[in-house]
Design a protein that fits this description.
Radius of gyration: 19 Å
Mean pLDDT: 91
Low-confidence stretches: none
Distance between the termini: 40 Å
Order of helices and strands: HHEEEHEHEHHHEEHEE
Structural class: alpha/beta
Number of strands: 9
Length: 231
């Protein structure tokens, strides 16, 4: 086991492993326990009482974080020439179609989000096996397959993220940076949790939100009192 550094020991000592913190307390504390020498990401994990193997218990959605994620989101728009100007004006980093499909076939995936128009989905289908595992496949449910290209690009750049429960029943998402204020982290976390709560499957029996934890890159996890996130 790797030996803890002095800074790691100091940071970890600030977290009571036997305590569940209120959400706003955790959002303040996560700033204090970050010992990375860079502007670390702040992540949240929400464990749900769903069975992701059942289609009627799948939890997936989109949410626009009020303060964004703090990350630079690289957006590729795949569209026909008539939509290219709209995409560029909205701030898309890459715009085109056939040339980018060929680049992706060649292994290029240096992007965070792909947005496209419905008419080009047939061309994107063959590269689905490359995009799918990386979470890059455009999907109408997340607003990344749309005719409103400009609007979609602006929303993603402003902090719109999509989230999905994984096979273990946990939703993971980045909700900011350590450089954010505690209030900004709290408001982002609250927005995401509220969105997850609204997606509670009707077929679910029992407890929906079982556990919540917040951490920064490489820091100890901070357990959150679930009752404090029932907005």
């Amino acid at each position: 086991m790797a030996k803890l550094t002095k800074n790691q020991k100091i940071a970890n000592a600030k977290v009571d492993a036997n305590k569940q913190y209120k959400l706003y307390e955790a959002c303040e504390l996560v700033k204090e326990v970050s010992y990375a020498k860079f502007d670390a990401s702040v992540d949240i994990a929400v464990r749900l009482g769903v069975d992701p193997r059942k289609a009627n218990q799948m939890v997936r959605g989109v949410v626009t974080l009020p303060h964004g994620t703090g990350k630079v989101t690289r957006v590729l728009v795949l569209c026909t020439p008539d939509k290219e100007a709209e995409a560029k004006e909205a701030g898309a980093d890459f715009v085109g179609l056939d040339e980018y499909i060929e680049k992706i076939k060649g292994g290029w995936t240096d992007i965070d989000v792909i947005i496209c128009t419905p008419s080009v989905m047939a061309k994107i289908g063959p590269i689905g096996r490359i995009l799918g595992p990386r979470g890059l496949m455009p999907n109408p449910k997340t607003g990344t397959v749309t005719m409103e290209i400009g609007k979609a690009v602006k929303e993603v750049k402003a902090g719109k993220i999509d989230f999905k429960v994984d096979k273990t029943g946990i939703v993971h998402a980045a909700i900011g940076k350590v450089s954010f204020t505690g209030t900004q982290i709290f408001e982002n976390a609250k927005e995401l949790i509220s969105a997850i709560q609204k997606l509670k499957p009707q077929a679910l029996k029992g407890t929906y939100m079982k556990a919540v934890a917040i951490c920064s890159t490489m820091s100890a996890g901070i357990s959150v009192d679930v009752k404090s996130v029932e907005f």
